[in-house]
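Morning!

This is the sequence you dropped in the shared folder:
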Amino acid sequence: MILSAQQKKMKEIYDLLSQDLSYIYGERESGPNGAKKEFLRKTAEFLRRLGKDLGFIEMRVHTNKAGIACSGEVTLYGMWSKNNGMFFEITQSLLRANDLLYREIESLNDFKGGQNKWLSISMFRDMAYSGLCAALLELKKEEEGQNAA
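The structure's back. Tokens below.
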């Protein structure tokens, strides 16, 4: 795990989400000084590393730049085993005060998954990267036969 680099990215993502990423700067849809583009790029990098650190055997990171009235979103779909995985989304949302959505999924094509769960974006400012990993790993199910000793 590259803790210090991921910890730094968490703080950078928090700072980016703390500003209005839907703002139009000139004729570009990238927010002030390209903040929206930077948010999408840094968040995708962060989620790719997070997926590796969580031990996914298969994963996909998707970036949706969306339009001028929103930040866009970056999502991680990852699978620990054939039927156990996680969906994690980072976006700027006015409705949920920038809470981060995650849920259990059964395949990389499971777009509705289990019950939605939420983490506060303030975790990115206040929590260690290892704490974020631990919170997300709660969705990982033990495979049958692993507990036999």
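Headline: Helices lie at 3-17, 35-53, 122-126, 129-137.

More detail when I'm at my desk.
O.
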